[in-house]
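Q: What would this complex look like in 3D?
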Amino acid sequence: MIVTVALCFVILLVLGMPIAVLLVVTTGMAVLLHTTTSLLALPQQLFNALDNFILLSIPFFILAGAIMTQGAMAKKLVAVINAMVGPVPGGLAIATTLACMFFAALSGSSPATVVAIGSIMIPALVKAGYPERFSIGLVTSAGSLGIVIPPSIPMILYCLVMNVSVAELFMAGIGPGLLIGGLFMLYTYALAWRNNWQAQERLTWRELLVTVKDGFWGIMLPVIVLGGIYSGVFTPEEAAAISVVYALFVELVIYREFRLRDIPEVCKQAAILSSCLLFVLAAAMTLIWLLTAFRLPHQIADLITAHVRSPSIFLLFVVVLFLLMGTVMDNVSAMLILSPLFAETLNRFGIDLIHYGIIMVLVIEFGFLTPPFGLNIFVAMGLTNKSLVEVSRGVWPFLAILLLCVLLVTYVPPISTYLPYKLLR
Amino acid sequence: MKRIIGILNRIEEWTLVLTLLALAGLTAVQVFCRYVLNFSFDWFQEVGRYGGVFIAFLGASLGVKYGSHFAMDLVYERVSSDRFRHALKVFINALGAVTFLVVAWYGLEQTMKLRQFGAITSALEFPKFWTCLPIPVFSVVMAFRFFHLAAKHLQGLLRNEPFAPGADRP
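A: Here is my prediction, written as structure tokens for the whole assembly.
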């Protein structure tokens, strides 16, 4: 059974079949060849996997992010943040990181963050005299915080396959997000100090007030969404719907750069993108259902616990495995398929699923910044017309910092688990 | 024929856009009603759940048309023979088409079963087979789109046309 599944999966993957389709083919083959179950189970399982209210939060968050990327929200936010930290050495670059972190708290996706902040900040940084390679690398890397700081699409997907609370995982992302963003800013500050990069002029109080007032609507969104979820006013999927309505209202009625006639196209793109994600999810859950029926998670747990004694070595193995997997398939799909298979092992080692989920998200973030599936790199290439090699060169110092953070978060669980334990349990 | 397909495509796209916006609006209204008017619709969860299934299948079928399903295309970058790349695409897309015809067939069987048993949803008391119907319907559409892509590459293979990366996207 395992041989059929593995062979079918690998061959079709290499031949370039869409992952969602190949998962259905693989499951179908295994059901036909190794069970007496009817293929009727296939549509049933696909349906069951999708029959979950929280799934809708994925298209909602993607749509809200797309609307804000097209509209003026990002620009206003950048102005506010720049007004605050501009006078520090390297201020504009530090403001870029902060803006990425803030936009990450508005949207749940990394590429969207790179587009929204990068299209404004890369030209601004270059114009202010920052090296081009550094500017591109900074935005591409800091944009990847989009999935670490809540809300986050990969986190929702993880919660669906692993049966974990979305609110808890969201909260666990705050610590690592601040850590990574903080180290990025520290690195930028050190560079600015060494290279004597210019600080910007300080704004007058009146100018500052006007900027903040202008950006107020954007600043309120994370307050509403995250505040709403954690005060129990609404569930994560309701928060997602509200952020769509709020973003539409602000962009259409207040900032007015986004037009009514832009809605269908943005909506179509967001819906198709999220459906493709949902379909991978449904197909992966169908395959997992079959593999679980064959007790594969238990077999894997037996195998691993027989050879590996300590949870920390297992976690190191997982991180290395995903970094390697990231070179042949995108890490989001890899997470959807592999995490449920490791569920029993995690249980036996006593590793918290929230902690493990954050490690997964960070590994996915790493994958966003490395070829061949580095979405952020491709987005940055599109924005700047630079080659893969040029963008990668700008990214690698940040990648080194990120790797350090992955290890820190893996071996110091409180970075991620402190907040949810303290506040939600 | 081409015009009919074009019209069907547009209907599909508008349905997707409107369903998504309607669900977002409905969810927001629901939260408003719960807190401000102290009143909540008990059928709402159900609409959201089945709406999700509908959107996922509809969008996934459109995703085939726009080539937005995630795949690994390393092999297409490494191999330089156009004929080989076309042949591979024919195989992949034909297999996809057959798979979704199978899914559609069993999806229909499942729908028919639900109809026969007269299963109804718990809150809306709506016949349950309707919620299952997107599976056979959009699987057939998806299969059709895969067949279309397979045919296109078969033509390319036979006429020895160059293989353009991203040619599947309109």
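A: To summarize the key features: Chain A touches chain B through 59 residues (CB under 8 Å). DSSP finds 20 helices and no strands in chain A.
Q: Very helpful, thank you.
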